[in-house]
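[Meeting: bench + compute handoff]

Bench side (C.D.) handed over the final construct sequence. Compute side (W.E.) agreed to return the predicted structure before the next meeting so the bench team could plan truncations. Sequence as handed over:
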Amino acid sequence: MPKTDLLQGTLDLLILKILTLGPNHGWGIANRITQISRDGLQASQGSLYPALHRLELRGDMLSEMVPSENNRRARVYRLTPAGRRRLQTEAASWEQFALSMRRILTAE
């Protein structure tokens, strides 16, 4: 299956969802998106890091610098209560959009 470019607005939702699995750093978030989608989605660094910064500025997540496994420092992101609420709202909106798309694409 070819990798799909992420639609505008979906990257924030994916990041928030990935962070419900636990705190993670940027590369780890991108990797989880690819893994969980079974190579169907890929977040480029050029879009991922601005999205992480934007979500942190909005208060949907917090970050801190921590030592990594290879003895370097990594910025780790964690979801805030506001981020959990936003995830619920955005997921419901996405589900409604997907349902509408399915209805149109399966119309005869």
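W.E. noted at the follow-up: The chain is about 55% helix and 15% strand. C.D. will use this when planning the next construct.
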